[in-house]
Automatic annotation (TrEMBL):
It comes from the Eukaryota. One of its GO terms (cellular component) is nucleus. InterPro entries: Papain-like_cys_pep_sf, Peptidase_C19, Peptidase_C19_UCH, USP, USP_CS. This is USP domain-containing protein. It comes from Neogobius melanostomus. Gene3D superfamilies: Cysteine proteinases (3.90.70.10). GO terms for molecular function: cysteine-type deubiquitinase activity. Residues 17-320 form the USP domain. PANTHER family: UBIQUITIN CARBOXYL-TERMINAL HYDROLASE, UBL CARBOXYL-TERMINAL HYDROLASE 18-RELATED. GO terms for biological process: protein deubiquitination.
């Protein structure tokens, strides 16, 4: 009785609720932990008047809203309906999935299955990184630019013992396109070698960073266990000032880390867990399916990779 009371009390205080592993659901569990820690998203879902949505078990944002609201309360959390709903939308149960793919799949389903388009736009804006891509012809020097957006920054890891700053620097470096990769230049009216790059126009309230740890190696997927360090807080201006478009006026670029999706094991066979930071106490917790415990920042750093078995895969930063 006392233990039961303690657990309920603890859950309420910590706000970190474990989720049972149901039919190999560690990937979905880890994303639910991440979404639950993104309280801006939970608040927007709560504002959605979903009473008229047909409860046919196919609407992912509806089922996700139910789980996320339960995770923030003292009610028991059941996420089986959510997992079956994902299954009906093509994310099969009993199968290992890629967290980064399912993350985008869920964001996409929010866009297509939620009928309140104003809220949909607000949810997109939480993650939206506006960028300008430019292609400069190396023969006539003319420049073509295009504005677009990303919902995360996909960072390639080129070598061992690197840092988030190195990966960001490399993401915003210009690269040359030659040979088969030549682009059509309107001035030259021909395919010419060019220099291509990406610059930031605006940074979002929630910055999702994907560390691209999977590499296709002659038809089979290899996981890169390289060590990549990342800070608990950082100022984007100080770590990637070359990343900004000339007319970008944004100066509030300080971010703090609040969730880390961790992958253990190999590309073909592994397990996902999450480190999440509590909203009020700002303490770190580790959620391994139904098991949750408080940890130190040192333990979060054990997911840098290198000698460690488990490696950070997605980093969620919040603008301060
Ligand atoms: Zn040209």
């Amino acid at each position: 009785m006392a233990a039961n009371f303690f657990n309920r009390h603890f859950c309420h205080v910590s706000g970190i609720r474990g989720l049972t592993n149901y039919c190999l659901s560690c990937c979905a569990n880890t994303l639910l932990q991440t979404f639950s820690a993104t309280w801006e998203l939970v608040d927007l879902l709560k504002r959605w008047d979903s009473a008229h949505v047909t409860p046919n078990g196919r609407n992912v944002p509806l089922e996700m809203k139910k789980v996320l609201v339960a995770m923030q309360s003292e009610q028991p959390v059941s996420h089986q309906d959510f997992l079956h709903c994902l299954d009906r939308n093509g994310v099969q149960l009993h199968t290992q999935h890629d967290a980064d793919e399912i993350f985008f799949f869920i964001l996409n389903l929010i866009q297509t299955q939620m009928d309140d388009k104003i809220l949909v736009e607000k949810i997109q804006s939480l993650y939206k990184v506006s960028v300008q891509t430019h292609v400069q012809c190396l023969e006539c020097a003319s420049v073509q630019t295009k504005a677009s957006y990303l919902l995360s920054l996909p960072l390639h890891i080129k070598e061992d013992d690197t840092s988030l700053k190195d990966c960001l620097t490399s993401f915003f470096e210009d690269h040359e396109l030659r040979g088969l990769n030549c682009c059509f230049c309107l001035q030259c009216e021909a395919k010419t070698p060019s220099k291509q790059g990406v610059r930031l126009l605006t940074l979002p309230p929630i910055l999702c960073v994907q560390l691209k740890r999977y590499r296709n190696n002659g038809g089979y997927t290899q996981k890169l266990g390289y060590r990549v360090t990342f800070p608990e807080t950082f100022d984007f201006l100080s770590i990637a000032d070359q990343a900004f478009a000339k007319d970008m006026a944004q100066r509030d670029c300080r971010y703090s880390l609040y969730a880390v999706v961790v992958h253990s094991g190999s590309a073909g066979c592994g397990h996902y867990t999450t480190f999440v930071r509590h909203r009020e106490s700002r303490s770190w917790y580790h959620a391994d399916d139904s098991q949750t415990r408080q940890v130190t920042w040192n333990e979060v750093q054990s997911s840098y990779g290198g000698g460690h078995r488990h490696t950070a895969y997605m980093l969620m930063y919040r603008r301060e």
